[in-house]
Amino acid sequence: MNAEEARQVHATLRRLGIPGVVAPEDPEHAAGAWRVYDGADPANRKDVTADVLAAFVAKFREANPEPPGKPQSGPTRGFIIPPSDG
Question: What is the pLDDT of residue 65?
Fold first, then answer.
């Protein structure tokens, strides 16, 4: 993710109450890749991106625990209106 995407991820995490610090992998190269960490200190932080993604999915699974239904596979009622030729 880039810096703009990181800002969006940070805001979403805060709204959902998921802890994490969104920061560049290399603090000296903000234009590079970004990850989610357990703390802001680059010397002592741990990458928790995978855990945060799992927490994000769990939040949405709580909101809608049932998977999407199977689409109808049988005939449906309706009308077929042929195009007018003229």
Answer: 65
Q: What length is written for the chain?
A: 86
DSSP state string for 20-73: -EEEESSTT-TTS-EEEESSS-TTT--B-HHHHHHHHHHHHHHH--SPPPPPP-
The reply to whether the predicted model has a pTM over 0.85 is: no
Which pLDDT value is given to residue 57?
87
d(CA 69, CA 8): 30
Residue 46, burial from CB neighbour count under 10 angstroms (0-12, 13-18, 19+) = exposed
